[in-house]
Amino acid sequence: MHYQNERNYGCRVSDDWSFRNNKVAVIENELIRVVVLVDKGADIYSFVHKPSDTDYMWRSVWGVRDTTKFLATTGDSSWMDTYEGGWQSCAPTAGNLGQDYQGAPMGQHSEISHMPWDSQIVKDDPEECSIKFWVRTYRTPFYIEKTLTVKKNDPALQIDFKLTNESADNSDCVWLEHIVFGDPFLSEECRLDLPNSKILNLNEGTAGNRLKPNGKGTWPFTEGPNGDVDMREVPPKSSKLEDLAVYHDLSDGWYAITNMEKKVGIGMLFSKEIFKYVWNWQVFGGGQGYPWYGRHYNLGLELCTSLPDGMAYPGSKDKTAFNLGTGESIETSLKAIAFESATGVKEIKNNGTIITN
């Protein structure tokens, strides 16, 4: 892109940047700026609401690695060793360590978040910009494409996805959009809003849980060790909690988190037919020992086609992973929408309009 027309107004896009030896792309307009680590999974590393100078994305204490100068001590922890926080795409597996995919050893959350992606600017105009990223997996037979688009004076980032099975046989897939929010945006002044849904607790009942292991509920309440827990609330870091819950059977495809003190928030609008589950990963100063050592404060609201590892819903024998035939693709779109509010969100319309409380 040596001869790209550079611009300092309206919509802008460039993939001619680098950070710690990682190729980086930046796409922005007057209201939002999004930074993508092209060489590291096409991760969304930063998502900034410009008017309030708010970056919604969580960052781990170890941040972005220069993998040309960093060697992991074991292959089993490659996800954690290079996990900078932010937002990853994970497919065709997502969940725990030590999985095997049709004979291929797989680590946590599959391989595409560790791989360099290709990129190409497909539209560069003051009114609208788009950039496409794509990758072909090593150990599994998938081809993944995603295109990021911003429009003039629009607080939404649109992402269009396409995932294709290139195997000569049918292939199972778990597809996770691993979206994690952190401080200083995240605080106990935040409120989580979802449409009507059911809740399944998936924590293991270790020290530092606020949710009852294998408990259930109906939004916004789920079972805790000492009564119902209101999942709209975000505990402080001093609470030393760590939990995992899953929202499912959503009446509509959206969620929102609002910092009512800062009067700023972010919402996700997505297909509930594709992303049937929202994993709610919560590390509020909890997680003693490796890898968190009690240092982190983050809230994951992760869109997924399935339960972790494609496991069956408790009481069922049917796996939740979906299956694609040879050459078959699945396509979907989502919007990540920055907004201002001091009261939380009642609804996100299909056109992306935020209806506040």
What report would you give on this structure?
The protein is globular, with a radius of gyration of 20 Å. It has a single domain (12-356), classed as Beta-galactosidase, Chain A, domain 5 (Distorted Sandwich). The protein contains one helix and 28 strands. It is an all-beta fold and 357 residues long. It has one helix spanning 78-81; strands at 12-19, 22-28, 32-37, 43-49, 54-55, 87-90, 99-101, 104-106, 118-125, 128-136, 142-151, 156-165, 171-173, 176-182, 190-193, 198-201, 216-218, 221-224, 227-230, 241-248, 254-259, 264-269, 277-284, 297-304, 322-324, 329-339, 345-348, 354-356.
Short description:
The protein is mainly beta and 357 residues long.
Number of helices in the DSSP assignment:
1
CATH topology heading: Beta-galactosidase, Chain A, domain 5
Give, in spatial order, the strands making up the sheet with the most strands: 6-14-24-23-20-16-17-18-19
Radius of gyration of CA atoms, rounded to a whole number: 20 Å
Low-confidence parts lasting 5 or more residues at pLDDT below 50?
none
> What best-fitting shape do the alpha-carbon axes yield?
globular
How would the blueprint of this fold be written?
Blueprint: E1 12-19, E2 22-28, E3 32-37, E4 43-49, E5 54-55, H1 78-81, E6 87-90, E7 99-101, E8 104-106, E9 118-125, E10 128-136, E11 142-151, E12 156-165, E13 171-173, E14 176-182, E15 190-193, E16 198-201, E17 216-218, E18 221-224, E19 227-230, E20 241-248, E21 254-259, E22 264-269, E23 277-284, E24 297-304, E25 322-324, E26 329-339, E27 345-348, E28 354-356
Antiparallel strand pairs: 1-2, 2-3, 3-4, 4-5, 6-14, 7-8, 9-10, 10-11, 11-12, 12-26, 13-25, 14-24, 15-21, 16-17, 16-20, 17-18, 18-19, 20-23, 21-22, 22-26, 23-24, 27-28
